[in-house]
Write a structure and sequence with these properties.
This protein is an all-alpha fold and 489 residues long. It contains 20 helices and 3 strands. It has helices at residues 2-7, 49-83, 87-115, 117-136, 141-169, 175-197, 202-220, 227-232, 236-247, 254-270, 281-299, 302-307, 309-315, 320-345, 347-373, 381-400, 403-411, 417-445, 447-468, 477-488, and strands at 11-15, 18-22, 28-31. It has a 3-stranded antiparallel beta sheet. The radius of gyration is 23 Å and the shape is globular. The two termini are 14 Å apart.
Length: 489
């Protein structure tokens, strides 16, 4: 079965007058025996309205995550002044977000596999709305902390369900671009929140922050369940209806549906989704890739830049408001550039370019502080700091922000996806907590050295990606899983 999926061409449909056969690049070649046959549209030829709406729903969940991440740095002075919190109490408010995300990461994979992707989006939206409402109406520390914990839990779930759902519903020729846009919304949500939060109160910012969560809840009414999840639990009738809805009423889904059903049934017979199954020989390489990408992404310094961007700008002598605006404006073209290029040049190429850019951004920022420490080039160091932040965040949004999650959602077969996703999600949040917790200590030790450490991690990430990360563009999930696990057995 696996060898067939690796080697056989995908035959879309065969009729006496018209045969359309998939070529090696995901396109189609049509041959007509009579020359008058009607052209049959393959199921992966275009984006449908329902696919765009589904991507928008996933983007709302990741956009909210970016807003949550930077909210505490913007609201600090206002909350402390209005509610009389001590610095220690506010520190708990800021850090409890990570605790919530860790809890969400722990339960994300198995729970999503048990109740479905669409239902999990419901839960994410409910926790988002509940968290923002708690902050909006907070009169003391307890409701504030509950709201922040709830938001973190929702984002922890989002980090798994968002990319997995999109990977399972998008056709191979659109998967990279659609997932890239949705995952990059985390960075843009953070940047836009930084701009808006510079001019409004913390309660008003919380009200605005709840809007994407509300759109997420409303959007769930319109989207279908993941066809591959429906196939996994044996609901073939609902599976075919969901797949037809995603591909369009005029699309021929017969071959795609057959491949998904056959491969899913084969996996179900061979193994269950247990955490120990991840350590079988055929999955160990995939596990190294998934966990390694989360380590490179998490320890590369993002949360140091995001949580303490104001301090970076201020210490470099740059207006934080100006810096936030420039960063947010830069995100727009970078996000869409990455989405446009991912299915052309591939995941691995963009990841390596992104990691190199992050390394350069960290080096420029570290060099700026090194010049300040030695009182050299005082006019140049602020420019270097701003340039370093811009290069780093643009590079992150271009690739490292979303592509690791795209690859993780693609490489793991559905029979181990829940356990693998939970583990990778948990590693990601542990690494993020390490960076956010240690940043101030490292910064006090050496401001320049902090960013040079991040640069070294990003540099090692380039080597890791080039050596171990597989390319997944232009193939169905079933083809990816069969080829990778077959080679590694």
């Amino acid at each position: 079965m696996e060898e067939k999926l690796v080697k056989k061409p995908l035959i879309v449909k065969q009729e006496p007058d018209n045969i359309s056969i998939g070529n090696d690049h995901g396109g189609t070649e049509s041959t007509s025996s009579g020359g008058a046959g009607a052209t049959i549209r393959p199921s992966d030829s275009r984006a449908t309205v329902i696919l765009i709406i589904s991507t928008f729903v996933a983007a709302c969940s990741t956009f909210t995550g970016g807003s949550i991440a930077v909210y505490s740095s913007l609201a600090e002075s206002g909350i402390i002044a209005d509610l009389g919190l001590t610095v220690a109490e506010y520190s708990v408010f800021g850090s409890i977000f990570t605790i919530g995300a860790l809890i969400g990461a722990l339960v994300s994979g198995r729970t999503t596999d048990a109740i479905g992707r669409r239902c999990m989006f419901w839960i994410v939206g409910i926790f988002y709305i509940m968290g923002w409402l708690a902050i909006i109406f907070a009169k003391g520390v307890w409701l504030l902390d509950f709201g922040r914990l709830s938001l973190g839990f929702g984002f922890g779930l989002t980090c798994y369900v968002g990319p997995v759902y999109l990977a399972e519903i998008t056709p191979k020729n659109l998967r990279g671009g659609f997932m890239s846009i949705a995952q990059s919304m985390t960075s843009y949500g953070a940047s836009l929140t930084l701009i808006i939060g510079s001019f409004i109160s913390w309660r008003t910012l919380a009200i605005i922050g709840s809007i994407p969560g509300l759109l997420l809840l409303l959007g769930v009414f319109l989207i279908p369940e993941s066809p591959r999840w429906l196939a996994k639990i044996g609901k073939e009738r609902e599976f075919e209806a969901a797949l037809q809805r995603l591909r369009g009423q005029n699309a021929d889904i017969s071959q795609e549906a057959s491949d998904i059903i056959d491969y899913t049934e084969n996996l179900q017979k061979n193994s269950d989704d247990k955490i120990l199954n991840l350590f079988q020989r055929k999955y160990v390489h995939l596990l190294i890739v998934g966990v390694g990408l989360m380590i490179v992404q998490g320890l590369g310094g993002l949360y140091g830049f995001m949580f303490y961007m104001s301090e970076i700008f201020d210490s470099a002598g740059i207006s934080s408001t100006v810096g936030f605006i420039v960063v947010a404006i830069l995100q727009i073209p970078v996000i869409f550039l990455g989405a446009a290029l991912i299915d052309k040049f591939g995941r691995r190429t963009l990841l390596m370019a992104s990691a190199i850019g992050e390394c350069l951004g960290c080096l420029l920022t570290g060099l700026s502080y090194l010049l300040q420490d030695h009182n050299l080039w005082k006019e140049v160091s602020p420019i270097l700091a701003l340039l370093g932040v811009l290069v780093y965040l643009a590079s992150y949004s271009f690739g490292m922000g979303g592509i690791p999650w795209i690859i993780i959602s693609e490489i793991f077969p559905i029979n181990v996806k829940g356990s693998a996703g939970t583990l990778c999600n948990l590693v990601s949040w542990i690494c993020s907590w390490i960076v956010s917790y240690t940043f101030n200590f490292l910064f006090e030790w050496s401001s320049a050295g902090t960013f040079f450490i991040y640069a070294c991690i990003c540099g090692l990430g380039v080597l890791f990606i080039g050596k171990l990360v597989p390319e997944t563009k232009g193939r169905t999930l079933e083809e990816i899983h069969a080829s990778l696990t077959h080679i590694l057995q």
